[in-house]
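Usage

Read records sequentially. Each one opens with the input sequence:
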Amino acid sequence: MIQLLPILALYAAPQSPDTQITFEKDAFTVVRKGAKATVPAGGKPDANPHVAYRRDQNWAVWDARGLTVRVGSLVRSSHLGELAVSPKLTPREEIRKNLSRFKDGSRTKDASAISGSLRVGNAAYFLVRWDGKDHKPWLEALVRVDLTEKKPTWSLVGKFEGLTTSDKFIGNQLAANGESLTTCTQTADGWGIASYDPAEKKFGFKKVGKELVQFAPGTAPTHACYVEKSGYGTLVGGGLNLTSGVRTRLVESPGKLEAIDGLAPSVFLIDSASGRVLANGVSGAQMRLDADTKITRTPFGILAWQGAPSSASLYESSRWRALAQWHP
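and closes with the structure output:
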């Protein structure tokens, strides 16, 4: 496993003829060898965050209204409160305790968010999540909308063993593995790969480790990234094959460690007492970052920018060689 190594010096590079960075209307445009990618640079948050799946006139949407199913002009929305008291998801004794929690405001019947969503064939799946007043999840449920039905509605599929690590209003914790759905969850006994096979209508779980901190799905099922807590208090990051369950330990840090996404090659952001570092988990190459630097992956490399923005650079991640730079 690669440990933290001395920081590499940055490679300064002028804007090359085959790679260009421009900035306009709160977004970067990166052009390399004729191909183009657009990267939003922040600005105002989305006023209506949502995810939607459509087939002809049938829609399944998650947004501030909850889960909305629309057929033409007919719209039905629900926060799925009935699932919070469903014995199909929660033992009756725990439901009775939750009724008291609903009264004191520590929990609500209404769902808070989705930890992930995915379309498989003509069905849209939503992994719906309930967070408590402490912002910790206490329930997740997998629901399905068949977009081929004349009058589609949502139906309960069931629940994965354990809970995901998602804390977003619209998470990305569901991945496709053939016709199956996959995620990583934490249980009382450890974390692992949780799955659902629609054809068999069967849930599964394969234990991988002890304490999951982050799961970042990538090009499933061949690659994802994870961060877990070691038995001696450090954080360990690596790559994970969602089909075989094989994981590759890549980086370790005593401070904060985060996978920037689940794609290959695995890249991690490390915050420690010595500063902020971007590390390629495969090559071991590292690059120091200023505290206000924002980063994202593009098809051509890692784009990093500062300020409003005041500068930007595109890097290939194996040695953090600069491919292009931008200044206003």
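Summary fields computed downstream for this record:
- The radius of gyration is 22 Å.
- Confidence is low (pLDDT under 50) at residues 1-13.
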